[in-house]
Amino acid sequence: MPWILNLLYLTILIILSPWLLYKAATTGKYRRGLSAKCRGDASHPLLTKSWPGPTVWLHGVSVGEIHLLRHVVAACKQRNPDWRIVVSTTTDTGFDEARKIFADLPVIWWPLDFSWAVHRALEGVQPDVIVLGESELWPNFLRAAEVRKIPVAVINARMSPRSAARFERFRFLTAGLFRRVSLFAAQTDEYGERYRRLGAPRVLVTGSVKYDGAVSERTNTRTRDIAQRLGVGQMFTPAMTEWGGWKNAPGLVWVAGSTQAPEEELCLRIFRDARKRHPNLRLILVPRQKDRFEEVARLLQTSGIPFARRSQLTEPATAPVILVDTIGELGAIWGLADVAFVGGSLDGQRGGQNMIEPAAYGAAVVFGPHTWNFKETVARLLEHHAAIAIQDGAELHAKVLELLGDEALREKLGAAARAFVRSQQGATTRTLEALESLMPGTDNVKEAA
Questions:
Q1: Between the ranges 2-11, 16-25, 145-154, 234-243, where is the mean pLDDT highest?
Q2: What angle do CA 329, 333, 336 make, to 5 degrees?
Q3: CB of 254 within 8 A of CB of 341?
Q4: Beta strands 246-248 and 236-238: pairing type?
Q5: Secondary structure class of 286 (helix, strand, coil)
Q6: Domains of the chain by residue range
Q7: Same fold? 27-213+426-448, 221-423
C-alpha cells in the first residue's frame, strides 16, 4: 500500500511541477523546507538532548492552527512539565509564526506523505503521542504511526458538511484514515457525530479550544502595542482637504479582517461612504493571505484613498486606511475594533474565518452567509444576539453604516458577544485530560488505539 501511494504522490508532483516551479520563481512559495519535507528531516538541536519524560508531537498546518496550539502548549506545560513538546507545521507563514511563539521548543517541518519521509520523521522525533490541530490526515503517516503503536489524536476537530459528504462518497478509500486515529476531540456534537459515522473509534466532544485562547481585555499588552504602532490610540480628523490636514480628535475604528477578494473592494466602497458621515473613521484592512498583500495595495492605490502599510511604518500612522501586510497581528488588532467584519464569509469559497476573537473583545461583529467552518459558533452568537449575519454586499453596506451611527447598538452587541465567549471557555482542560489518557501506561491507550 505505501508504494502505491508513493507512486501516486510522485505522479501528482510531476503533473503539477510546472505550476509549482512557476509559483516558486514568482512568489517564493514552496521553496523553504522542501528538502526537509521530502526527506522527513526532523533534526533540531533540542531533539538531540535526552529527556526524562514522554514526547508529544503537536502539528498545526498554518498560522491559524499554530495560534490554536499556543494555548494548548501553555496549558500542557503547566499541567505536565515533564512532557517534551515538539511542534511542526506545513506552510512558510506557519513555520515563522511557530518559531516566534515556541522559541523554546523544537519546531520542524511536517513531512510530505512519502513513506520514507514519514518513517524518518517519526524516527527523529520518537513521539509517544501525536496531536493534530483540527485536521491533516495523511494515510502513510497514520499507517506508520499505527505500526509503531503511537496514538494519534485530532484536537479541536471539526468537519464541514461538504467534507463529510466527500468522505462518505469515497468511504471505501478513506475509512482507514479515521480508524487509525485514536481520538477525535470534537468541537461540537454535530462534528462528533460526523466522525463517528465515518468510522472513528473514539470521539469525545470537548468544545472549541479557540474560546479559551480568546482575549477579552482590550488593555492587553499586544493590543496596546499595536494601537500605538498604528496610530489608533490618538485618532485624527480631516481639516483642510478631503483626506489631509490632520489634527487630534476621537474617532471610530472599523476592522475588516481575514478578507478575501472581492471583500476588500467592497469594504473600501463602504468606507468611502461612511467617511461622509463619520469623518474620523479609520479602516484597518487585514487580508487573509500573504500572497494577496500586493494585490490589495494596488487596489488601495487605485481607490485614491490615502493608506499606510503596516510593514513600512516607522512612526504612528495618520492615514485613514491601514493595510496590515504582516502575519500574526490580527488577534491583537481585533481589540481596536468598534465594528468588526470577519472576512472569507462573502465569497462562498472559504466558509468563514474565526469570529471568536473580535466577539471576545466586545466588538460589534458582522459576517456574511458563508460560515460553515464556524457553523456552531455562528448559531450560538446569533442565538445570543451577539453578532449580525448579512447576506450580501448591499446588506453589509447598510449594517456597517447602521452600527457606526448607533453607539448603543454597538455596545449591546459587544457586551453580549463578550459574555457568550467567556461562558464557553474550558475546552483546553477537557482536551488535555483526553490527551493524558493516551499516554503510555494509562488504561485508555489500548482502548483508543
A1: 145-154
A2: 165
A3: yes
A4: antiparallel
A5: strand
A6: 27-213+426-448, 221-423
A7: yes
What are the backbone angles phi and psi of residue 86, rounded to the nearest 5°? Answer: -120, 135
List, in sequence order, the alpha helices (H) in 384-426: 393-405, 407-423
Q: How many other CB atoms sit within 10 Å of the CB of residue 396?
A: 23
- Distances in whole angstroms, Cα of residue 27 to Cα of each of 37, 91, 92, 291, 293: 19, 14, 12, 7, 12
**Do the Cβ atoms of 341 and 368 come closer than 8 Å?**
no
How many percent of the chain have pLDDT more than 70? Answer: 94
State CA 57 to chain mean position distance.
19
- Whats the size of the chain, residue-wise? 449
The proportion of the chain whose per-residue pLDDT surpasses 90, expressed as a percent, equals: 72
Q: What residues does 130 pair with on adjacent strands?
A: 57, 152
Contacts of residue 327, Cβ cutoff 8 Å, sequence gap at least 6: 63, 93, 96, 97, 290
- Least confidently predicted of 57-61, 160-164, 323-327, 353-357: 160-164
**Alpha carbons 179 and 196: distance in angstroms, whole number:** 10
Phi, psi (degrees; rounded to nearest 5) at 398: -65, -45
**Which residue reads 492587553 in cell numbers?**
220
**CA 373, 209, 327, 63 torsion: positive or negative?**
negative
What is each CA distance from 146 to 85, 101, 152, 204, 296, in whole angstroms? 20, 30, 8, 20, 45
Of 71-75, 247-251, 290-294, 303-307, the poorest mean pLDDT is in 247-251
The whole-model pTM stands at 0.74
Active-site option among 65, 97, 134, 357: 65
Q: How far apart are CA 344 and CA 87, in angstroms?
A: 27
Task: State the DSSP H helix or E strand holding residue 96, giving kind and residue range, or none if neither.
Answer: helix 92-101
Grid cell, residue 187, equals: 468541537
Q: Is 263 among the residues known to form the active site?
A: no
At 442, is the pLDDT very low, low, confident or very high (cuts 50, 70, 90)?
low
Q: Strand 152-157: give its sheet, edge to edge.
A: 107-109, 84-89, 55-60, 129-133, 152-157, 183-186, 203-205
| Domain 27-213+426-448, CATH | 3.40.50.11720
Mean per-residue pLDDT, 195-214: 92
Query: What pLDDT digit, counting tens, does each position of 139-182 carry?
Result: 999 999 999 999 999 999 988 888 899 998 888 778 789 999 99
Range 219-232 average pLDDT: 93
Mean pLDDT of the chain: 90
CATH code reported for the domain at 221-423: 3.40.50.2000
